[in-house]
Amino acid sequence: MKLLYAEDERSLSEAVVDVLEYNKFSVDAVYDGQDALDYAESGHYDGIILDVMMPKRSGLDVLRTLRAAGVKTPILLLTAKAEIEDRIEGLDLGADDYLPKPFAMGELLARIRAMLRRRAEFTPDLLALGNLTLDRQTYTLAVDKNRLVLPKLEFQLMELFLLNKGIYLSTEDILVKVWGYDTDTDIGVVWVYISYLRKKLSSLGANVAIKAKRNIGYTLELQS
């Protein structure tokens, strides 16, 4: 599961990201409202966590803009304990839940899990194509009894392909969605990781393959 977390207090952000990643979430952390909006519009996320009070744009402004654009990704708002008006406005704007600050990490995790279970467009924990399955909880790629656990970036890349079956993704799109909006990573790294996945698909005996179309991109499809 991939989350976007927008919080301008860096020490809190680092602590929350550590807890989320320990619980097998992949997290992009940003520190102001404009970055939160840019990331949310450009990346694929299972859920978004927005602090209401942020520089450049407030969490409520980001929420309003995303919902007006038709973005249905579940959104959890983090609000100051006394700001009841923010909670009411946030729910009216389309937030899925809110959590007053300060909060316990255990409650944050519970709210995130509940939010993801309620999302309108449910994405199963087990993604499949042909004889290949990917368990999004354990990062396990499997064909029948052959299985292996993918490193984080390989998992995110395979997840991206399985969520976009039949759709060609450009190298630039893949770089942004897997490595992040402001990554300094060279585009050649995408080709390297695609090579890693191709070798693993072959070793597992998968009847699917990553296909390339010149000047268009890559897709995952059944082999004929």
Mean pLDDT: 88
Q: For the report, how would you describe the main beta sheet?
A: 5 strands, parallel
| Shape estimate | elongated
Straight-line distance between termini? 31 Å
The overall number of domains is 2
Give the DSSP E fraction (strand runs of 2 or more residues): 15-25%
Taken in chain order, the helices and strands follow as EHEHEHEHEHEEEEHHHEE
Gyration radius, rounded = 18 Å
CATH third-tier fold name of the largest domain? Rossmann fold
Number of helices: 8
Structural class, by secondary structure, is: alpha/beta
CATH superfamily of the largest domain: Response regulator
- CATH class of the largest domain equals Alpha Beta
Widest beta sheet: strand line-up:
2-1-3-4-5
Q: Total number of β-strand segments?
A: 11
Characterize this entry briefly.
With 224 residues, the chain is an alpha/beta fold. It has helices spanning 10-22, 33-42, 59-68, 84-93, 105-118, 152-163, 171-179, 188-204; strands at residues 2-6, 26-30, 47-51, 75-80, 97-101, 126-129, 132-135, 140-143, 146-149, 208-213, 217-222. The strands form 3 sheets. A 5-stranded parallel sheet has the order 2-1-3-4-5, sandwiched between helices. A 4-stranded antiparallel sheet has the order 6-7-8-9, with helices on one face. Strands 10-11 form a two-stranded antiparallel ribbon.
